[in-house]
Amino acid sequence: MQxxxxxxxxxxxxxxxxxxxxxxxxxxxxxxxIFVFCYGKILVIIHRQARVVAGHSGPGASTSQTQTIxxxxxxxxxxxxxxxxxxxxxx
Length: 91
Fold this sequence. Notes:
Layout: H1 2-8, H2 12-57, H3 63-90
């Protein structure tokens, strides 16, 4: 087993490539996935609350629905700005 690992890592280029891929995946892609998961959960909760509010208000568009749509768009804008900022500044 020791000989196999010696053959794989004998080349400094292979080690640098694998190390670079590992760093990119662990410090960049995993954090992006956590952002997507958490902000996705936030959007699901906001959408669920909007449906409940719309159910209580009765038929027709109301100010609460307009406010909910405004809140949803603000959250989406914040998500896009946060992801873009993280992606840009972490490289």
